[in-house]
Amino acid sequence: MIGLANGGTDTINAIKTAGEFGIVAGGQKLVGLVLFISDIHALGLKAANGLMLTTAYCRDLNDKTRVFAERFARRSNGKVPSMSQVGTYSATLANLRAVEKVGSAKGAAAVVAAMRDACTFDDPLFGKTTVRVDGRVVHDMYLVEVKKSEQSKKPFDYYKVASTIPAGRAFRPLADGNCSLAQ
Length: 183
What we know:
Layout: E1 2-4, H1 8-20, E2 30-32, H2 37-43, H3 45-48, E3 52-55, H4 63-75, H5 83-102, H6 108-118, E4 120-123, E5 127-131, E6 137-138, E7 141-146, E8 159-165, H7 167-170
Parallel strand pairs: 1-2, 2-3
Antiparallel strand pairs: 3-7, 4-5, 5-6, 7-8
Helix pairs in contact: 1-2, 5-6
């Protein structure tokens, strides 16, 4: 496995170059550490085939994620949201719900307290979601593999889920004893 610890255009160019040099055809697996569905779209399925990456959002995971992706695509020239866009939507929605619960946007401390009171909730896009004491929001992540062209049935149908990474493994606190930076 070759981990690509870069992002954006650098990652896209590295993947294209790996294809040109026959690295993937020779049996190596590429793993992108920072990739979005828009990057896969820019590459095309032929170039990205077999690429592995982690994501917080899979558009075809369930009915809720499909409906959201379709609604988003209708409003954005057919493009589906990246996990960052979905995360921003989710965070904004959680904030607005907390403001509604408090009854006012004034008093940030009360809004934050209301968000933390929710503690664990069913996020429509990320599923079971927890707000930790340190403020970190955690949910399952997904290890996905990019499909072959013939496996894709519609635009942006790029991922097949290889495994689910439980929230507790995907989002570890720095002080869990496994990080030298926390000592």
